[in-house]
Amino acid sequence: MENILNFISSNQQIIYIVILMIFVGIEVIGRVPSVLHTPLMSGANAIHGVVVIGAIIIMGKAEADNYLALILGFLAVILGTINVVGGFVVTDRMLEMFKKKK
Amino acid sequence: MQSHLLTLCYLIGSITFIIGLKMLSNPASARKGNLVAAFGMAIAILGTIFLYTSETGEHLGNYPWIFGGLLVGGVVGTLAAKKVKMTAMPEMVSLFNGMGGACAALISVVEFNHLSKEIAEGVVSAGDVQPTVLIIVLGLIIGSVSFAGSMIAWGKLNGKVKDLSFTGQNILNLLVLAITLAAGAYLVYDPTQHMLVYVILGLALVYGVFFVMPIGGADMPVVISLLNSFTGVAAACGGFLYDNKVMLTGGILVGAAGTLLTILMCKAMNRSLQNVLIGSFGGHKSAAGASGKDQGAYKEISLADAAMVMSYANKVMVVPGYGLAVAQAQHVCHELEKILEEKGVEVKYAIHPVAGRMPGHMNVLLAEADVPYEKLLEMEQANDEFKTCDVVLILGANDVVNPAAKNDPASPIYGMPILEVEFAKTVIVNKRSMKPGYAGIENDLFFQPKTSMLFGDAKKVLQDLCAEVKSV
């Protein structure tokens, strides 16, 4: 019990962020028309590519002789970057077609 | 100073993600919203590379590797996203999502190895790192499931992977999940069992495959959206791990928004998420029952007759479906619309929310062909107008106009709202053959007296129709 309480109080900032972000996430897309479901999914897909930051940190911290960490980290950076860049570009291509032409 | 600057970068990143997502949910601002989020992402990534310092004040090293990875990933991602055809975009999203999941899983593996080395060297005690291990294991499991599931979803959408379901599958799936979680819990309990991390990785990958395998191809958009929110949560685990606020906010934001989006998509099909995930589509008796029924005969219509009927109609409603997308027939469809309008025929499009392979798929396609936005009717509007339509032209749509959804409780799509095309005077259906649609269900509509079939590839048929209508 004390462990749990300790954990909560030492991580309270993070817990607050998580709870508030859940509400923000639900709130911001609450009224999306069905037409935009696909682009929105794709845009959100690009945003979770933020995980690449973790990969960069790993890569940058890896010791020069730790080949496993270097290789896995390198792979993670590549995959994360594909997620970010590909995600934003593909979303842009989808949305390009929504612009009004008069 | 530098770490404060980095905090600012992350703050900007988090705020742009929220604003970007908000703008993405409105048609007028969507494109700008995407750019806003991309801008924030660039700031957060560049900030990390140049400003990040560890607890001991050291900068990141291995720049050649980092930039090499960014370069390779950037080039591959851009090319893939630019080259992909509009019809294949859903697959692409699934693939990108899988990459993110794999990235999260790899981070967990590397971090765990790092941690277990520290335990072995006695730098930290196994008891102290248990919360960290919990986060690592969560990121590993969620990321791996998301990766494996996305790959299967990708394969299903492009037809490389077939549906597979057998009795007891749900129980087997739950069993695999339970073993995975148990292995994870054991590793948290005893972090010195360092080989267990690979066992968990393998199990989670297997579960990801099993999880998506029985779900029908028609439900893939919902699955992709769900896996998308999984990856969001996996990214948030990374945020926990590094106490990195931008990863945390971005990940949780996508996790929450993705979950809601998944539920909204299910609602558009009038089904519950549980029904999508467990009641696998067309896998059981109901489909067999439907196909065993005597269907009677259908009738065909010639191009010339079809052109005639449409030219003399007052109002024609086009119902586009996946067939239109596959044939890349959106431009010639717009062409036909213009020719008919010149003859004084009113032409509109009825868009079912899940027509094609993804919600909004048809809107994107038709917008690409410059079809005016006002001509696209949503399902409710369209259903009000079918009564006044002389001709409904169905282009490669099937399940979204299947009356079984309304009147056959045994049908797997029973309860899904459909476009009620049978209220129009005449229905012309363009399909490549009489084969059932993606959900694998027969469609009674094709056998009704007012329905005529016009077989062939949508693009070819529409081109010929254009020529015929011109000459009427």
Please, could you describe this protein's structure?
- The complex is a heterodimer of chains A (102) and B (472).
- Chain A has two domains: 1-31; 35-102.
- Chain A contains five helices and no strands.
- Chain A has helices at residues 2-10, 12-28, 37-47, 52-61, 67-96.
- Chain A is flat, with a radius of gyration of 19 Å.
- The model of chain A has no long low-confidence stretch (mean pLDDT 88).
- Chain B has 472 residues and is of the alpha/beta class.
- Chain B is elongated, with a radius of gyration of 26 Å.
- Classes of the chains: A mainly alpha (102), B alpha/beta (472).
- At the A-B interface, α2, α3, α4 and α5 of A face α1, α2, α3, α4 and α8 of B.
If you average the pLDDT of chain B, what whole number results?
Answer: 87
List the helices and strands of chain A in order.
HHHHH
Which two chains form the greatest contact, residue counts included?
A-B, 79 and 115 residues
Whole-number radius of gyration of chain A? Answer: 19 Å
Helical content of chain A (DSSP H or I, runs of 4+):
over 70%
On the 0-100 scale, what is the average pLDDT of chain A?
88
Shape of chain B: elongated
Backbone structural class of chain A = mainly alpha
Q: What gap, in angstroms, lies between the N and C termini of chain A?
A: 65 Å
Number of domains of chain A: 2
What brief labels describe this structure?
heterodimer; A: 102 residues; mainly alpha; 5 helices; B: 472 residues; alpha/beta; Rossmann fold; 2 domains; 61% helix
What's the helix and strand layout?
The complex is a heterodimer of chains A (102) and B (472).
Chain A: H1 2-10, H2 12-28, H3 37-47, H4 52-61, H5 67-96
Helix pairs in contact in A: 3-5, 4-5
Chain B: H1 2-24, H2 30-51, H3 63-83, H4 89-120, H5 130-157, H6 169-189, H7 196-212, H8 220-242, H9 245-268, H10 273-278, H11 285-292, H12 303-311, E1 315-320, H13 322-327, H14 330-342, E2 346-351, H15 361-368, E3 376-378, H16 379-385, E4 391-395, H17 404-407, E5 426-431, E6 451-455, H18 458-471
Parallel strand pairs in B: 1-2, 1-4, 2-3, 4-5, 5-6
